[in-house]
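Hi R.,

Here's the chain you asked about this morning:
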Amino acid sequence: MFIVNTEAAIYRDGRYLLCQRSEKEDHAPGGLALIGGKVEMEGASSDILERTIAREVQEEVGLVIEGHPRYVYSTSFVSDLGEPVVNVIFLCEQFSGEPYAVSADEVAALFWMTPEEVYEHPEAADYLKDYVRKAEDVRLKGISV
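And the predicted structure, written out as tokens:
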């Protein structure tokens, strides 16, 4: 069985919202990341991935996702704890509020970064750079990959 995780490529004014994960996180502690989290059990449900994105973004950075997030990309990986994960990325361009770290146990810091800043950042993992590239493809060309 896979854990299902969602991540939000939150975009505003030429920049993406990234977080530095707390050192207390089990997976990728201290790393740069998009905002997101695990799908929770809800029984029979529709739009569960989109609702998960909205819930996680509000819980972690206090933003309210509006409109319909656009699917970007999905992948799989094995977490630092050895758990298989399916990861689904969404582009979120409509939201309200100003981001802040709601819980220091999850988010150590927030940064608005241009795609180029992400690509050139020495601590940005290759997968994060890839997520931002694919979000840019969807944003600019409407292409989901």
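The beta strands are 3-12, 15-21, 32-33, 35-38, 64-65, 70-78, 84-92, 95-96, 107-113.

Let me know if you need anything else.
M.
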